[in-house]
Amino acid sequence: MTTPPFYCPKCNHPINIHAAPGQLLQCPNCHKTFPAPRTAHPHSLQPTPEARPAVFRPPPSPGATAPTTIYTPPAYRGANRLSGIALTSLAFALLYFLPLGILVIAFSFILVYALPALALITIVLGIAAILKTARRTVRGRAIAITALTIGCLELAFAAVVIPFAHRSATEAEHRIRCASHLRTLGTALILYSFEHRGALPDRLEDLPLSQDVTADNFICPSSNDTPAAGATKQLAANLQSPGHQSYIYLGKGRTTHQDYGTVLIYESLAHHGDGFNALLNDGRAIYLQGPIARKISAELQSGKNPPPSLNPDR
């Protein structure tokens, strides 16, 4: 690579371009094409910081038009290298962690569902081995007792883990369905407010009279309540009976233009154990859990709405 500047042999105009010896250059002043010299001009200046290297192009064949010099900014070349590194890292991550994830899922499936069967097989084989080693001439009684003990421990572990896993999965499903019911009721409340100049109904039981809601929408799946029978007027009347509505309504006397973060519907902490779903005045259903859930529930019961401890943007 020869150090610039080069000087046009025709007009002696300086050209500050890093170029390989013999590479064709074009003078920006007189547009004459000439090859880059092998040595720098005796009166050459120091290369400027903003001078960028040119991409090497082989000399054209005789009679061909001189090619235009194409530049590749260093920033683009760095971006290309970073993109290559990112793609390589992603490929390695998929190569190593995808099989690991599959193994973890398979192991979890075996642990939850195949463990009782393995425990029973171990217990049966352990009992058979103990019976076979009852005679003193046959060795291995200690191993048989160990196998029987391990099988009993596996069966006890499965008896504890499987119901817990089932309850956890069921509770997660109930929590999602409960939030879906609240969103449906929230949509019905908004439509009701459109028909009544922004006012909300005094009772949640009035929604079936004018909105498309079902008895299941008033029930939390984790509660002991049962859907009310009937449709429209009969449903609205039956919802007033205990055991057919799981939610606490706070929209009486309110409008859809209340303060941001106002809770319209919430439920008891007893439904989901350590948390509850709540419907805000913008139609969103959020789940609150832990100490903050207990604190917000106490604030709502004391009449503080919006609750001071609630962050509606969570």
Task: Lay out the secondary structure.
Layout (H helix, E strand, L loop, with lengths): L5 E2 L6 E2 L8 E3 L6 E3 L38 H59 L8 H55 L37 H6 L8 E3 L13 E5 L7 E6 L4 E5 L1 H11 L13
Antiparallel strand pairs: 1-2, 3-4, 5-6, 6-7, 7-8
Can you describe what's shown?
It is flat and about 100 Å long. It has 3 domains: 1-72, no CATH class; 84-168, no CATH class; 179-301, no CATH class. The protein has a 4-stranded antiparallel beta sheet, sandwiched between helices. The protein has a two-stranded antiparallel sheet with strand order 1-2. Strands 3-4 form a two-stranded antiparallel sheet. The protein has helices at 74-132, 141-195, 233-238, 291-301, and strands spanning 6-7, 14-15, 24-26, 33-35, 247-249, 263-267, 275-280, 285-289. The protein has 4 helices and 8 strands. The longest helix has 59 residues, at 74-132. 42% of the residues lie in helices and 9% in strands. The chain is an alpha+beta fold. Helix 1 crosses helix 2 (141-195).
Number of strands: 8
Roughly what percent helix? 40-55%
Oligomer: single chain
- The helix tally amounts to 4
Unreliable spans are 40-56, 71-79
N-to-C SSE string, H for helix and E for strand: EEEEHHHEEEEH
Assign the structural class, choosing from mainly alpha, mainly beta, alpha/beta, alpha+beta, or little secondary structure: alpha+beta
Largest sheet: 4 strands, antiparallel
Mean pLDDT: 77
In short:
By secondary structure, the protein is α+β, with helices and mostly antiparallel strands. The protein contains four helices and eight strands, in the order ββββαααββββα. A hairpin with a 6-residue loop joins β1 and β2.
